[in-house]
Amino acid sequence: MSGQAVEARPALPPALARRAEADALGHAWILCGAPEARLEAMARTLGMALLCEGADRRPCGACRPCRKVERDIHPDFQWVEKPAERRQLPVERIRALRADVYIRPNEGRRKVYAIRNAWQMNDEAQNAFLKVLEEGPEYGAFLLLSENPLALLPTVRSRCELLRLEPQAGADPQLAERGAELARALLGEDPWEMARQCVPWEKGKREEVLALWEAARQAALAGRDARAVRVAQALGEAVAAGERNGNMGALWGRLWAAAQGDDL
Ligand SMILES: [Zn+2]
Hints:
This protein is α/β, with parallel strands linked by helices. Helices cover 48% and strands 9% of the residues. The protein has a five-stranded parallel β-sheet with strand order 2-3-4-1-5, with helices on both faces. Bound molecules: zinc ion. Zinc ion (ZN) is lined by residues 52-54, 59-60, 63, 65-66.
């Protein structure tokens, strides 16, 4: 790997590395505390550790299973995500996972499922998932990726171990606070407060506004109700569209509409 954008494979925290070597890793994890891309990289490392056949160090990074997980071609390491056209991860997707987990692993010791943006599961899906956690076969392992673990039901959280990633250098606490203010305004009932938060930024620099939206998205993720999920999703879409050079004024308008409950 050479490009600066590509992060080297993250290492397991020391306590987990020791458990991995003793083959004593738990079967249910919530990966949190970082944006999705970093969580995915850590999920791969954890998946490698669960499937590694190295003699002394796990993940060794060199055995066949490790290399296959790293390249996303291991049949016993599956990514689960919401269909592109849906706003939430629907219960059918979890039911499919539940049917699949009872088919024994193809070649590994375990069958590992990594759920992208697990906070996008609605309550019905999370309840179905709870059953998998409670009743699934011993070889099943589940990695829930959720930047903010509070976006998951307490019943799900209580059955998972938390793997919280260390914050990256350069995180800006002021930006987080401003993002939280914007999220509160977007989730609040008061259109004037919303305007007060949004208007000063409407002529802001693109990168600064995108950073603000991202901070607000992270704050909104803490809310579990449908409105918070919708606002977080709208903020995520606005960040993606802004990065593709979308019209910032129009994106503010769509955010506003999403906060007020209009369909986008
Ligand atoms: Zn290995």
